[in-house]
Amino acid sequence: MTQPSRYSKQLLFANWDEDRQRMLGESRVFLCGCGALGTVVADSLVRAGVGFLRIVDRDFVETSNLQRQVLFDEADVASGMPKAIAAAEKLRRINSEVEVEPVVADVDFRNVRDFAGDVDLIVDGTDNFEVRFLLNDAALELGKPWIYAGVVGSHGQTMTILPGETACLRCLVTDVPEPGAAETCDTAGVLGPAVNVIASLEVVAALKLLSGQRDKIDPVLTVVDVWDGTLRRMNLGNLRDSSDCPACQHGERKWLDGHEGSKTTVLCGRNAVQVSPTKRGELSLDDLAKRLGDVGEVRSNAYLLKLVLPEADREITVFRDGRAIVKGTEDESAARALYSRYVGF
User: Fold this and answer.
1) Catalytic site residues?
2) Residue 181 — pLDDT band, cuts 50, 70, 90?
3) Structure pTM?
4) CATH number at residue 139
């Protein structure tokens, strides 16, 4: 009995055929981040038959990831495997026809052009706005489409950005939120189903773009709350023309040029790193203490807040201007990751 082809069910879909599949198989994607969103996106794209997938991630697998990061298991936790490497090993076993390139790195203004320069599409799998603004700058500069997404709690949102055609991320969000002003998945939690829905919407947009169906991309921000069972599509068709955006209208590239972005400094002899956010402001330590109360031991006074984490003797001391000292590491990428996780960018 002849076995059906790998993509036989996909080819039966009304908006798909052999030519679309061939185009997908010749396409190249840069996935920035391989956590909750990124693992779902990577899994779906590889199963669909994308030609090349570059996965860039700075983190390693932890037990708390397993609730929603679908490519990892307990063996990856035990081995301390970097997420990009662990994901690539799984993906190659799923579809050996796809070229998967894992990169263990922190995406910044120095390397983002290298990661994005030779691909057809950039996909957001990250968890902070600094990197998203960097991706937005890079996509505009290189003329590459990219797909933005984010999930916190039970809700998430996504939009596809076509440089020169649609609104960009800075048309929608003018600047990085103040430190402590926005919830993160480590303070508000995140439901796996919300991740799966938003990541799946990212993949649908990717399949349209990579199969030559760019005309099927609507200029909308899609907002989903899986707990409430709601879905909204906010029309952004006129936003680019009305926003007077410094990035897509006037060519400003302050993240790509390295003028914006968090600054880190290793504190000599203290096994600590100082992290300074892009934008300093008056941080409400009381509000931050309430958000972090269930994360670890919180101590605060009128000038600073100290969060003592239960793992690996890590401490984060946050000052009212948003600056923080992360104790227990001299790894700048790890310090930035902890700051993003618990304070938020």
Assistant:
1) 185
2) low
3) 0.83
4) 3.40.50.720
